[in-house]
Amino acid sequence: MDAFYASVELLRYPDLKGQPVVIGGGRRHEPVLREDGSREYARLRDYTGRGVTTTATYEARDLGVHSGMGLMKAAVRAPDAILLPMDFDAYRMYSRRFKAAVAELAPVIEDRGIDEIYIDLGDVPGARDAVGHDPLGGVRALAQEIKNNVRRATALSCSIGITPNKLLSKIASELDKPDGLTILTLDDIPSRIWPMSPRKINGIGPKAAARLATLGIHTVGEVAAADPAWLIEQFGRSFGAWLHEASHGRDERPVVTHSEPVSISRETTFERDLHARHDRAELGEIFTRLCVQLAGDLQRKGYLGRTVGIKLRFEGFRTVTRDLTLDLPVQDAEAIRAAAGACLKRVDLSQRLRLLGVRMGGLCRPGDVQARRRTPRPARAVAEPLPQNLTLF
DNA sequence: TCTGGGGTCCTAGGACCC
DNA sequence: TCTGGGGTCCTAGGACCC
After folding, report:
1. Active site residue A30
2. What are the angstrom distances between the C-alpha of A356 and each of A267, A297, A305?
3. For residue A3, which of A13, A270, A306, A322 sits 20 to 30 Å off, Cα-Cα?
4. Which residues are listed as membrane-spanning (predicted)?
5. How many CB atoms sit inside 10 A of residue A363's CB?
6. What's the Å distance between residue A67 CA and nucleotide C18 C1'?
7. DSSP state, A70?
8. CATH superfamily of the domain spanning A263-390
């Protein structure tokens, strides 16, 4: 989906069409209805806090505002841009609608989050009918139908890439955004893919791209030209081999239509950094609230879990995790809170905190009888000796 | 003026088991 | 008396994605 959150908001506030709009941050900056019926919107320049841009309209992107960017930084680049808070319920509703619209025409769908899917057209009648005289005419028509159906169901546009595999489709879908439709064959790889930055490949992030650049590699084509043995030397057996394959557009992953969650979590970044001692009561409340929310999520979704984990982010952004695997799966807030509390005791809390999170892994369904480990776990040595008065929580 | 929240997967060491 | 090999589980951290 194109600029998904922002596009959904524009359906609600059509007067903002054509303007730089940024979605992100919290509650406070809802538009206010004036007496004459017009609306007063918050501007990016008025924002203070720790929020980030989740989505920016293409007009805002032209001003240098991109998703993931801190709103305070975005405000320097586009002070006059409109700022709207997130409305996840609305996005979820539109997400369901667009996926249902696609499924009417092509039911083999892999979920990739709220605004993205992979579709397997392999068995869709029509996609291959034209093979022989116009091999791609059939798929192009089908893709256009899918786009039409999504627009009919949601009034939103999407961009589609049609290629032999998921890796290439992900890249292709971004070649003609917004409202794009791009078809690529293996023959197009040298001309269309190799000139690109390695960053365009799903799985090459900022770190890998920076390392490639250090090695003098700035395009996918240069990765493809590199000796695979050398790539493995530089990046390890698994990632190095994958880099070689990916740069040649090779990807055998199937479209996965069903998957079970691995973990469920809740976390929150505080408006100001909190100290375990000075802000003990506040932190304790937040900690308990996270556990209660997590328990609610687990119960609503019908899972229990055996591995309770916590995540702490300190001032300066250093992140630490601890987890604890219980003998039996649990689901209730009290058990989660107790296990998470035990995890917390293993962390040095002398630095102030900016984030606290609670996570449940090792998920199973209530019916499952978990084979419980026969042997009790040995007591683990505490990694860091803790300052005496900071261990209580 | 630093950097959300919800996830997945990978690596690597140590414990433990056969 | 200085010592295998294979496997799983647990834990911590990090890269990456939407």
Report:
1. no
2. 6, 17, 19
3. A270
4. none
5. 20
6. 11
7. B
8. DNA polymerase, Y-family, little finger domain (3.30.1490.100)
Nucleotides of C under 7 A from a protein CB: 9-18
Which DSSP state fits A181? E
List, by residue range, all CATH 3.30.70.270 domains of chain A: 90-189
- Encoding tokens for residue A116? 């993205």
> Is strand C within 7 Å of residue A207 (CB)?
yes
The residues of chain A that CATH labels 1.10.150.20 are 195-247
Please report, rounded to whole angstroms, the spatial distance between the CA atom of protein residue A35 and the C1' atom of nucleotide C17.
43
Residues 216-255 of A with CB under 7 A from strand B: 236-239
CATH 3.30.1490.100 maps onto chain A at: 263-390
CA of A323 to C1' of C18 (A): 25
Q: Which nucleotides of B are covered by protein (CB under 7 A)?
A: 1-12, 15-17
Q: Which nucleotide is nearest to A204 (CA to C1')?
A: C16
List, as own/partner pairs, every contact residues A381-388 make where C-beta atoms lie below 8 angstroms and the sequence separation is at least 24, other chains included: A382/A346, A383/A346, A384/A346, A384/A347, A384/A348, A386/A345, A386/A348, A386/A349, A387/A348, A387/A350
For CA atoms A76, A26, A81, A151, the dihedral sign is positive
- Domain A4-86 fold is MutS, DNA mismatch repair protein, domain I (3.40.1170)
A110, A116, A174, A267: which one is catalytic? A116
Confirm whether any atom of chain B, the nucleic acid strand, is less than 7 Å from CB of A68. Answer: yes
pLDDT in tens, chain A (393 residues): 999 999 999 999 999 999 999 999 877 899 999 999 999 999 999 999 999 999 999 999 999 999 999 999 999 999 999 999 999 999 999 999 999 999 999 999 999 999 999 999 988 877 765 444 566 778 999 999 999 999 999 999 999 999 999 999 999 999 999 999 999 999 999 999 999 999 999 999 999 999 999 999 999 999 999 999 999 999 999 999 999 999 999 999 999 999 999 999 999 999 999 999 999 999 999 999 999 999 999 999 999 999 999 999 999 999 999 999 999 999 999 999 999 999 999 999 999 999 999 999 999 999 876 555 444 444 444 444 444 334 434
- Classify A195-247 by CATH class: mainly alpha
